[in-house]
Amino acid sequence: MGNEKPIGVAVLGLGNVGSEVVRIIEDSAVDLAARIGAPLELRGVAVRRVADDRGVPAALLTDNVEELVSRDDVDIVVELMGPVEPARKAILSALEQGKSVVTANKALLAQSTGELAQAAERAHVDLYFEAAVAGAIPVIRPLTQSLAGDSVLRVAGIVNGTTNYILSEMASTGADYSSALADASALGYAEADPTADVEGYDAAAKAAILASIAFHTRVTADDVYREGITKVTPADFEAAKALGCTIKLLSICERITTADGQQRVSARVYPALVPLTHPLATVNGAFNAVVVEAEAAGRLMFYGQGAGGAPTASSVMGDVVMAARNRVQGGRGPRESKYAQLPIAPMGVIPTRYYVSMTVNDRPGVLASVADEFGKREVSIAEVRQEGITDEDGVPAGARIVVVTHRATDAALSETVSALADLDAVQSVNSVLRLEGTAE
Ligand code: NAP
């Protein structure tokens, strides 16, 4: 290699991911320079706490993000600080000053992707975010580049390791939600405040990013229908097992044709029954997987570590090398593609299947009145199970009815569940989950 001008990098954040990114930049300098065609030089690292014990020469550390981003010798800004602010301000400033940006910040992207993409467009620079969805797993680049000539129909995945760990624990040990969450916290898989994970916000942010890319349409986290896993019970897992299924928190992005013949995008997150034979059923613990279905390619599956400092840094560094190469060779990678601008489909029009578990009075005619509520809304029943239940003293206390439906609109299904809850014979509707990954 000759005297190519070095590419200057600023890393914002020195936490789980940032510290691994800095390590790779330093440890793999020779290889990275060969792959890029110019040396990659670390200009500085932004942190809140500047100190000598950070594992990075103190001269490289700063708590002044804006000053670091604005340095003339910084070409690429790698944002790994976290929350929406100050990350948004730092990224916009970097883009406006003509620097390429790499970020892993899904919360920010799912909220402000348009604003950031426009700033990148105006400055003719790269904005890359492979690490924002499913950590180490390459899924953004396959969707934007490898499948650019195909037509994506569906992207469905397990993209949150915390909830997948909790659900896997519940499935394998029979634990209830609270003790599985406590285990996940003790092992460092759940944050002190797990809300973003267990209520599905993190998975919804990733669904928004995937749907935007897969369907060339701007989708934000607010467009994503979302349910978390906090209401999933051991009884649901028992019922799932009896049906040959397990329960997974799925992020689903789909291009659908609604009854009015219009193409729409559906993006949704909820816990669902998944047949044990489906590839996503075997994804356990903190692992992630994304299944992409495209018209010509058919079904593709991407699987691996969805979080963690080093795995996420791998994705970040892939983006850094791409952005650096573009700087050396001139040009840019793919820009935001939003030409299709498909409308977002409301949850009510989405065809889904339901599993409903309810406790009813054990007397003649109850099953018929339950079936009647489904029939009235043209929801066809695929399977019914009924078993007697007793109270703590062994006295008969009614019956449990489990119904699995065929596909119907979500609105018809949820109306049916409301009507069932109002029936005199129904003591309680205990659980309602959707069923995914089946033909009908
Ligand atoms: P983290 O461990 O909490 O580290 C955040 C870093 O940012 C810290 O070094 C912190 O400085 C610094 N920072 C925060 N606010 C700052 C400010 N105002 N000015 C300067 N520095 C600031 O976070 P992380 O787990 O590495 O995650 C980083 C990003 O990657 C997030 O967007 C996250 O969503 C995303 N991500 C993480 C993972 C993962 O497995 N961890 C996976 C995929 C994506 P101090 O050290 O001084 O406090």
UniProtKB/TrEMBL annotation:
Annotated family: Belongs to the homoserine dehydrogenase family.
Cofactor(s), by name: a metal cation
Gene Ontology BP terms: methionine biosynthetic process; threonine biosynthetic process
Enzymatic class: oxidoreductase
Function in brief: Catalyzes the conversion of L-aspartate-beta-semialdehyde (L-Asa) to L-homoserine (L-Hse), the third step in the biosynthesis of threonine and methionine from aspartate.
EC number in record: 1.1.1.3
Molecular functions (GO terms): homoserine dehydrogenase activity; metal ion binding; NADP binding
Catalyzed chemical reaction(s): L-homoserine + NADP(+) = L-aspartate 4-semialdehyde + NADPH + H(+); L-homoserine + NAD(+) = L-aspartate 4-semialdehyde + NADH + H(+)
Residues that hold L-homoserine according to the record: 191
Residue stretches making up the ACT domain: 355-434
Protein name per Swiss-Prot or TrEMBL: Homoserine dehydrogenase
Binding site for NADP(+): 12-19
InterPro entries referenced in this protein's UniProt entry, alphabetically: ACT-like_dom_sf, ACT_dom, Asp/hSer_DH_NAD-bd, HDH, HDH_cat, HDH_CS, NAD(P)-bd_dom_sf
Pfam families named in the record: ACT, Homoserine_dh, NAD_binding_3
Species of provenance: Mycolicibacterium anyangense
